[in-house]
Amino acid sequence: MENINTQERMDNSNQPQPGDALVIVDVQNDFLPGGSLAVPHGDEVVPVLNRYIQAFQALNLPVYATRDWHPAGHCSFREQGGPWPPHCVANTAGAGFAAALQLPPGTVVISKAVTVDADAYSGFQGTELDSDLFAAEIKRLFIGGLATDYCVLNTVRDARGLGYQVFLLGDAIRAVNVQTGDGMRAEDEMLRLGARKISVESVVA
């Protein structure tokens, strides 16, 4: 019984441990100030994410980075009837990760929405992310990035549906807020789904 309780305490700890992975969602130039689909204050997540990255690197724990990697003429673009301006077109500067984001060597890059006729807000949708995590025996995900109310929300939603324990990096997310309050509603939904909101101070303490 003592061993079970110890394991439960470990599972609920904010401290990164074997079986954990850091998932950085779509911290790309087009989502930063000056980009074609800029998330307000999106650049503010970068220095905070770098601190999470350092904590995971120190323990040799894996880092995953998702990215939109759209073909030209993607179905999500307004010219094709979608809701968004063209953004994150594969092999353009806008699709690149933020220059200040200190992704370590060995970061697993997950490209999504790579075909003209399918969009994907979740890092799991149409990708190898779940199978890669399963192969690496990952049980807990620390998820942050852009944007709270779209790709972060949907990635967390799928992660919980697949049975991962999720820590939401509350200080390393920012929302688009197409409708006022979208970001807060997204956070509320993620918490209802069982994600636990944390801050970097609790991880590096």
List the helices and strands and how they pair.
Blueprint: H1 2-12, E1 20-25, H2 45-58, E2 63-68, E3 108-112, H3 129-135, E4 140-146, H4 148-161, E5 165-174, H5 182-192, E6 196-198, H6 200-204
Parallel strand pairs: 1-2, 1-4, 2-3, 4-5, 5-6
Can you offer a commentary on this structure?
- This protein is α/β, with parallel strands linked by helices and 205 residues long.
- It has one domain: Isochorismatase-like (Rossmann fold, 3-Layer(aba) Sandwich).
- Helices cover 30% and strands 18% of the residues.
- It has six helices and six strands, in the order H-E-H-E-E-H-E-H-E-H-E-H.
- The chain has a six-stranded parallel sheet with strand order 3-2-1-4-5-6, with helices on both faces.
- Strand 4, helix 4 and strand 5 form a beta-alpha-beta unit.
- Helix 4 packs parallel to helix 5.
- The protein is globular and about 45 Å long.
